[in-house]
Give the backbone structure.
Amino acid sequence: MTVLAVDHLSKAFGGVSAVVDVSFHVDAGELVALIGPNGAGKSTCFNLVNGQLAPDAGTVSLLGKRIESLPPRDIARRGVGRTFQVAATFASMTVRENVQMALIARAHGQTAVTSRAADLLRAEADALLERVRMTKFADQGCATLAYGDAKRVELALALAGAPRLLLMDEPTAGMSPRSRGRLMDLASALARQENIAVLFTEHDMDIVFGHADRVIVLDRGRIIAEGTPDAIRADTRVQAVYLGTDAA
């Protein structure tokens, strides 16, 4: 089942084309990597999908319904979650409290947080922490976590919104090689177990080729190749514009 469908999407800034006639899809339980050199249009494409930017042309559909004209909050409520290059958590709160806040936001919008509401969602928060293997850190302050653990908390925050589509913007940036693999193993397992569509950007090609079902390559705002990791690795045009250069 197709969860995300992007059709003929375009966006320009002051006459500079950032995304040009881009079309692709992501199915339930599928991990799709969006890669390309710096300035290729990856972040712009992400921001168009989750409503941070409005397209100049084209459509974005979630489960068959167009969302490109909706604000980010409404898009999130329809089932689009996102993680960022830098882990975004409330450092002054515990791990459990962070997840409770995300669950309360999903259930009650901006309603004031009461101790009773927090108590009611404690079990649900703990269940989410178990899914991302962070149960033993539940009472620890987020400010004291190792960076890789903070990224797992951020993943729990995204899952608190019950996403059908998860956007992961350079999920392993700043992590050690061992932690990168563990995080993506976890994200991959969750996506497939829970039928979540995942679109992610990543500069680490070992992560891309080791975890993506399909890879889409952008260059100067246009898709220049799309296919399996093996096909992309062997594509001479991709090698010329990206894989043969320093991708950092």
Q: What stands out?
A: DSSP finds ten helices and ten strands in the chain. Residues 1-79+163-248 form a domain with the Rossmann fold fold (CATH 3.40.50.300).
